[in-house]
Amino acid sequence: MPEEPKAPRELVVRNRRDSIPMDLLFRGDTVELPKTSKPPESPKVPHDVPESVRPSAGAPPRPGREVVERRGRACSGWWAVSVALLALAGAGWIVWAGGVLPGAVTEFLRLPAPPQPRHELDAAWWAAVGGCGVVALFALGGLTRGRVGSAWTLSLFGRYRGSVRRTGLLWISPLVLRERVDVRLRHWRSEPMPAVDAQGVALRVVILVVWQVKDTARALLAVDDHTAYLREQVEAATVRVVSRLPADSFRDPADGGGDGDVPTLRDVEAVGDALTRALAAECRAVGIEVFSARPTRVEYAPEVAAAMQRRRIAAIDAKHRDSVLTSVLDAVDDTVRRLTERGLVALDDYERKALVKDLTVAFYTARGNAVDTH
After folding, report:
1. Tens-digit pLDDT profile for residues 317-363
2. Torsion, Cα of 360, 366, 367, 371 (10° steps)
3. Residue 188: CA count within 13 A, CB half-sphere
4. Whole-number Å distance between alpha carbons of 58 and 64
5. Contact criterion met (CB below 8 Å) for 193 and 236
6. DSSP sequence for 131-182
7. Which of 24, 67, 160, 252 is the most buried (most CB within 10 A)?
């Protein structure tokens, strides 16, 4: 009898070892391979932003779906004024027709005598007068003014009823609670905030934020105070972004470094873009749209300012001396090469070294005196 093919006891699938059930070793059933789930894709980040200033992978707060700005009920205030005048006119006619209007008022208004003079009204007539008065009060009590750059947020018994962004004379039901929200484009400049750079050096940073309330419902109901929330998020985002880069680069020019080779906090565009993205993501949940967040001043803390200033001056001086020395060596090499090629001098190794030394000292002294003079 032909031998039955032996099934492998273990199967390797994409670097994972999964055991085959024992009841399938002597059966002709096929084994279904386990499906591997795809790893979650990382969020796309623009390639032109330095890696050190990209926002962190922490998920920002998500806006609530139950509180979203929608249009509130309101109408033109002139309709309410018309209704109030008609109600008052109706109440006056009822009082005049009932004969209870004082004679002095009738003579002052030059009204004719009522068709059926009487000195008292029954309950139905008084009910009509009261109804006209209630209608007039209800119409006049809902009058308000809608201003450019602001919106009314309406709520009834703690429930959001919509927002009104219309301008001019408006009528809104007097039963709802109204609260005005500023929706103009606004800017806020922070006080010097403490922070540290990537090297742990203490800094003071001032941020200018341009923002606007985009969703009035979330700005008013999703947080206690949206302006205070914005200020706190500016401070938190500034600390996160600033801590990823050094304030200055003091790399030795002889090692191939320089101020332009290493990204620092002096790159206002890159730092501002990263700060704007981080702040916009954090404030979207409370209905605030952040247009820009730029550092207007990045300086060292007073306790380290003097030491860092000396280090900065030393780095600038070293870079300057290296550039001067490089130019002097190029000039010496060019001078010796020209003298040798034209046959003006014949030098051995000792004389060449002496000439190079003398020319280097002379050129370097001349360059140093010229720089000090300027």
Report:
1. 666 666 767 777 777 777 777 777 777 777 777 777 777 777 777 77
2. 160
3. 17
4. 18
5. no
6. HHHHHHHHHHHTEEEEPTTEEEEEEETTEEEEEE---EEEE--TTSEEEEEE
7. 160
